[in-house]
UniProtKB/TrEMBL annotation, chain B:
It comes from Liquorilactobacillus oeni DSM 19972. GO terms for cellular component: plasma membrane. Keywords: Membrane, Transmembrane, Transmembrane helix. This is PTS family mannose fructose sorbose porter component IID. GO terms for biological process: phosphoenolpyruvate-dependent sugar phosphotransferase system. Coiled coil: none annotated. It holds the Pfam family EIID-AGA. InterPro entries: GatZ_KbaZ_carbometab, PTS_IID_man. The chain crosses the membrane at residues 138-158, 178-198, 258-278, 284-303. PANTHER family: N-ACETYLGALACTOSAMINE PERMEASE II COMPONENT-RELATED, PTS SYSTEM, MANNOSE-SPECIFIC IID COMPONENT.
Length: 268, 304
C-alpha cells in the first residue's frame, strides 16, 4: 500500500470515528466506511460488497439515550483494512465479517472510555462559560470531536503497520471448515438486526403488513425498490381507509372539515 | 442596552443549524449533549447579548444537562432561539423557563426520533443500499449517503425554523395528527419491507438428504447415449429443457421440503427466535456470536 493510501485510510478512519458519536453524515455506517476504505486503497468492489453485508448486520445498531450500540465504525474500518491487507479480494469477505463482530464489541469499550474522557472536557467548558469565552468553548468542542476521531484512527493506523503477509498468513491458516462455517453464520446473523428493528416497530396493527411483505418477496421476483413502492402504497391505502372509517362512524356524513388530520395536512 | 430590538437573521439561524451537526461531539456521561448544545448556540448568543456578564450567564445556562435524539434537538433549538431572542429584547423569561422548555421537549422528541430515524429510515435506506452493494454496485453506498443526508438536513433545518416560529407553542403542535400520521406510515412500510428483507437476505440452507430415489428410464438424460461433439451438447440441452433430470437419481434435501412450504421459512423462525431472545434481555452481541458458533458447528456435523 502506498504512503498516500495509508494516510487517506487514517483520514477516513478519523471521519468514521467522529461520525460514530455525531451520527449525522453516516460516515461510520459500514456501507460508507468500507466503500471509502476500498476507494482510497484501490480495492473498491470487494470493500463495497463487504460494506453491504456488514450493513445488513448493523441495521438495528443505534445509540439510544445513554446506551451505546456495538461500534459500527471500528468494525467496518478494521475489517475493510483486513480485507485489503489479506489480498484475497471478494473471497475474503466472509472472514473479514467474522473478524468485524469481535471488533464491534472492542469498539464499544473504546466508546465508553471516550465518553468518560469527555467529562473533564465539559468541565473546562464550564470554566470558559464563566469567563464568557466563546473561543475556548469552541476549541474544546473541536478537541472533543477529534478525540472521537482518534478513537478509530489510531487502531486503523496500527492495523496498517501489521505487515500484510502476517494478516494473510493468519487468514490462510484458518481451516476451511471454520471459514465456511463463519460464512454460513454470516448468512444467518443478519436476522439479529432485523429482530431488533421489529421489536421496536411491531404492534398488532402492523403485523399483517409484515406477513404480506414476506409472502410477496418469497413468491415473486420483485426488486427491493418495487417492494418498497408496494409497502408505501399499502400504508397510504390503509391509513386512508382507517381515516374514512372513523369519520363515517363518528359523524355519519364525514365531511372534510370534521377531520382533524385533514385540517393538519391542509395547514402545512 | 441598545434601544432597537435585536433579531436573529436567517444567516444566524443557519449558522446555529450547521453547528448543531456537531451536537454530540463532546457527549459525556455527566451532562451528555450539553457542550455541543452550548457550542451550537454561540452564534445566537454573540448576536443577542453584548455585555460580558450577559454572555457568560447565557453560556452557563446552556451548559446544563441536555440529551435527545440528535436530529430532534433542532426543533428544541428553534424554540430556544425564539425564547432567547425575546429575553434579549427585555421579555421576562428566566433561566428556569428556558431550561424547563428544553427538558420538557427533549424526552418526548427522543421517543419520536429513535423509532423514526434509527429504526425505520436508516434500516430501509441501509437495506436498499446494502442490497445493491452486495452485488458490487457502487450506487448502493452513494444512494444511501445522498438520500440520508438530504432527509437529515431537510428535517433539521425545517424543524428548527418551525420551532423558531412556533416559539413555546411547539410542544402542543407536535402532539397533533401529522406526526402521528408519518409515524404510522413509516412503521407500516417498515414492517412490509422487513418482511421481504428477511425472506430475501437471511440465508439458511439445510443440507441433509431426505430421500434419494432412482428415476425411471426416460426421466433422466442418458449421457452415454448422446451423440458426440456439439450435437451431444445440443441434444442434452434440449432434453433438459423437456424436463429430464440431469442425474439418474432424484435427491431431495431437507431444504427442498421446507421450501415447498414457503421459501424462507427457516429464516423467519430464526428471526422470531432472535426477537424472543432480545425480549429476554439477551445481549445482541451474545446472540451474534452464538449464531456464528451454530454456523460453524452445524457445518462441521453436516446439517448446514
Amino acid at each position: 500500500m502506498s504512503a498516500i493510501s495509508m494516510i487517506l485510510v487514517v483520514v477516513v478512519a478519523f471521519f468514521a470515528g467522529m461520525e460514530g458519536i455525531l451520527d449525522e453524515f453516516q460516515f461510520h455506517q459500514p456501507l460508507i466506511a468500507c466503500t471509502l476504505i476500498g476507494l482510497v486503497t484501490g480495492n473498491l468492489i470487494p470493500c463495497v460488497i463487504l460494506g453491504g453485508q456488514l450493513q445488513f448486520i448493523a441495521l438495528g445498531w443505534a445509540n439510544i439515550g445513554a446506551a451505546v450500540a456495538p461500534d459500527a465504525a471500528l468494525a467496518s474500518i478494521a475489517s475493510a483494512i483486513i480485507l485489503v491487507q489479506g489480498g484475497q479480494g471478494v473471497k475474503g469477505v466472509g472472514t473479514a465479517i467474522a473478524v468485524a463482530i469481535p471488533l464491534a464489541v472492542a469498539g464499544l469499550f473504546l466508546t465508553m472510555v471516550a465518553r468518560t474522557l469527555a467529562v473533564p472536557i465539559v468541565h473546562i467548558m464550564d470554566k470558559a462559560a464563566e469567563e464568557g469565552s466563546f473561543r475556548k468553548i469552541e476549541i474544546w468542542q473541536v478537541i472533543g470531536i477529534c478525540m472521537q476521531g482518534l478513537r478509530i484512527a489510531i487502531p486503523a493506523a496500527a492495523l496498517l503497520f501489521i505487515p500484510s503477509t502476517a494478516v494473510r498468513g493468519l487468514l490462510e491458516s484458518m481451516p476451511a471448515w471454520l471459514s465456511d462455517g463463519m460464512t454460513i453464520g454470516g448468512g444467518m446473523v443478519v436476522a439479529v438486526g432485523y429482530a431488533m428493528v421489529i421489536n421496536m416497530m411491531a404492534s398488532r396493527e402492523v403485523w399483517p403488513f409484515f406477513a404480506i411483505g414476506f409472502v410477496v418477496a418469497a413468491l415473486t421476483d420483485l426488486t427491493l425498490i418495487a417492494l418498497g413502492a408496494l409497502g408505501i402504497s399499502f400504508g397510504l391505502i390503509y391509513l386512508e381507509l382507517k381515516k374514512g372509517g372513523s369519520n363515517n362512524n363518528g359523524n355519519g356524513s364525514g365531511g372534510n372539515t370534521g377531520d382533524p388530520l385533514d385540517d393538519v395536512l391542509n395547514d402545512y | 442596552m441598545a434601544e432597537e430590538k435585536v433579531h436573529l437573521t436567517k444567516r444566524d439561524r443557519l449558522a446555529v443549524a450547521w453547528r448543531s451537526t456537531f451536537l454530540q461531539g463532546s457527549w459525556n456521561y455527566e451532562r451528555m449533549q450539553n457542550g455541543g448544545w452550548c457550542y451550537a448556540l454561540i452564534p445566537a448568543i454573540k448576536k443577542l447579548y453584548k455585555t460580558k456578564e450577559d454572555r457568560a450567564s447565557a453560556l452557563k445556562r446552556h451548559m446544563e444537562f441536555f440529551n435527545t435524539h440528535p436530529y430532534l434537538a433542532s426543533p428544541v433549538m428553534g424554540v430556544t432561539l425564539a425564547l432567547e431572542e425575546e429575553r434579549a429584547n427585555g421579555a421576562p423569561i428566566d433561566d428556569t423557563a428556558i431550561q424547563g422548555v428544553k427538558v420538557g421537549m427533549m424526552g418526548p422528541l427522543a421517543g419520536v426520533g429513535d423509532p423514526v430515524f434509527w429504526f425505520t429510515v436508516r434500516p430501509i435506506l441501509g437495506a436498499l443500499g446494502a442490497s445493491l452493494a452486495m452485488s458490487g454496485n457502487v450506487l448502493g453506498p452513494i444512494i444511501f449517503f445522498i438520500a440520508w443526508n438530504l432527509i437529515r438536513w431537510g428535517f433539521m433545518w425545517y424543524t428548527q425554523e418551525f420551532g423558531y416560529r412556533a416559539g413555546s407553542k411547539i410542544t402542543e403542535d407536535l402532539s397533533g395528527g401529522l406526526l402521528q400520521y408519518v409515524t404510522s406510515l413509516a412503521s407500516i412500510m417498515g414492517m412490509f419491507v422487513l418482511g421481504s428483507l428477511i425472506q430475501r437476505w437471511v440465508t439458511i440452507k439445510f443440507t441433509p438428504t431426505v430421500s434419494s430415489v432412482k428415476l425411471a428410464k426416460g426421466a433422466y438424460i442418458e449421457w452415454n447415449k448422446l451423440p458426440s461433439g456439439a450435437n451431444g451438447i445440443k441434444e442434452a440441452l434440449i432434453q433438459q429443457k423437456d424436463g429430464l433430470s440431469l442425474t439418474a437419481r432424484k435427491v431431495t434435501t431437507l431444504q427442498d421440503n421446507l421450501d415447498s412450504l414457503i421459501p424462507g421459512l427457516a429464516a423467519l423462525l430464526l428471526t422470531f427466535l432472535c426477537m424472543w431472545l432480545l425480549k429476554k434481555k439477551v445481549s445482541p452481541i451474545v446472540i451474534i456470536l452464538g449464531i456464528f458458533v451454530v454456523g460453524v458447528l452445524g457445518h462441521v456435523i453436516g446439517i448446514l
